[in-house]
Design brief:
The chain is mainly alpha-helical and 395 residues long. The protein has a domain at 1-19 and 174-390. The chain is built from 16 helices and two strands. It has a two-stranded antiparallel ribbon with strand order 1-2.
């Protein structure tokens, strides 16, 4: 397979890839100390300094929505592209109305940057608001002075994900209402109309439903907190992420989402001038799935030693064949940058197809579940009624 020796970057310089990658990496980025506790396992294995990111809080509802985060990234990037200083940009965002969490974070980031620290480190101080995978992408782009480009790419991805989530939620409105009627409304109506039910039957039903939903909420909260407490790239978390890829209905969409994030991050970093091994490494850590990230990170030494990117991605076993072929075509034609754009577009189109299918299947599944719940509750209530009538006649 042909290997790309050098690729022209956007600033007119040459970037080495393929067989000359290892020497180019060592000359462009000499080995530096990795901040203790700050690197994601796998990131920094080629000797690159990484920002320290404290662990996220395991509690839910401590972050900021995707739309607000996307707007923050977009506004900051546009102001930086206009030539405004980073500290002034952050102070301006801190003074805007909207999310108080974002305003407090922006004010703290402004003080951190004005003290002489890097922007990526300022982002990393707030892991509950800015996800570690997003911070790693910004940090990688900062080596080429392309933080605004990375933030705009993150903002576009967040907007797409928010739109896809809203599409699924809109499709679930009516099925959820029907499920509520089947699970709550119908049993209450039966308890009220049943001739054998006592005067407090409705209150007993309400008390049973309240206890049931409180138990479900407590279990879900405990599961979320326990999962978010598992360290990234630990064996347990990696195994759970791998198992999640095979969950019916959601597994394929989860895989497509992770690959879309990887493709976006890899394209953005590589076009920004980041060397291929580092771009591959940081993009893998930014995909959001530890199992897929671990498989891709295992191929980074191959690229550092001179293996082509397409061969490394094929070796990982998690990239679709069509995606590998797109990257391979770019390497053979000397237009890897353009091929990575097509690779990212392909992954996003595949993700959108999966979301469209999910938006159609989930409402039907919800209606089917509603019918089962309704049938069970009706039969249970009338079974008790018939049993009472039979006991009356037997007496």
């Amino acid at each position: 397979m042909a290997r790309l020796r050098q690729v022209a970057t956007t600033d007119g310089t040459r970037r080495a890839t393929g067989d000359s990658q290892e020497s180019a990496t060592s000359s462009a980025y000499p080995a530096q100390h990795v901040s203790p506790g700050g690197g994601i396992p796998g990131v920094g294995r080629i000797g690159l300094e990484t920002a320290t990111i404290p662990p996220r809080s395991p509690l839910p509802f401590t972050g900021v929505g995707m739309r607000k985060r996307a707007a923050f990234y977009s506004q900051l990037a546009r102001m930086m592209q206009a030539g405004i200083g980073v500290g002034r940009c952050l102070n301006t965002l801190a003074g805007q109305r909207g999310s108080r969490r974002l305003a407090r974070a922006a004010a703290d980031m402004a003080r951190h940057v004005e003290a002489g620290n890097r922007l990526a480190e300022a982002f990393g101080r707030h892991p509950n608001i800015f996800l570690p995978n997003e911070v790693r992408v910004i940090e990688g782009a900062s080596r080429a002075g392309r933080e605004p480009d990375a933030m705009l790419a993150i903002a576009r991805l967040l907007d797409r994900l928010a739109a896809a989530r809203n599409k699924v939620l809109v499709g679930l409105i009516y099925p959820v209402l029907w499920m509520w009627a089947a699970f709550l409304g119908i049993p209450l109506l039966i308890a009220w109309l049943s001739p054998l039910a006592g005067p407090d039957a409705v209150w007993r039903e309400l008390w049973w439903q309240a206890r049931f939903f409180a138990l479900v909420a407590a279990v879900l909260f405990a599961v979320v907190v326990a999962f978010r407490s598992i360290p990234r790239f630990s064996g347990l978390r990696t195994g759970l992420h791998g198992a999640a890829l095979f969950v019916p209905l959601f597994g394929k969409t989860y895989r497509r989402l992770a690959l879309a994030r990887f493709a976006d991050a890899f394209h953005g970093l590589y076009v920004a001038g980041v060397m291929a091994p580092e771009a591959l490494e940081r993009a893998a850590a930014a995909c959001g799935n530890d199992f897929i990230a671990a498989r891709i990170l295992g191929t980074v030494p191959m690229v550092t030693e001179g293996t082509s990117v397409s061969a490394a991605l094929a070796q990982s076993g998690v990239i679709p064949t069509l995606g590998v072929n797109i990257v391979q075509t770019g390497e053979m034609s000397g237009k890897l940058d353009e091929s990575l754009v097509k690779f990212a577009e392909y992954q996003h189109e595949d993700l959108e197809i999966g979301i469209e299918r999910l938006a159609k299947i989930l409402p039907m599944a919800a209606v089917f579940l509603m019918i089962i719940i309704l049938a069970y509750r009706v039969l249970a209530q009338w079974g008790a009624h018939i049993s009472g009538v039979m006991d009356f006649f037997n007496q």
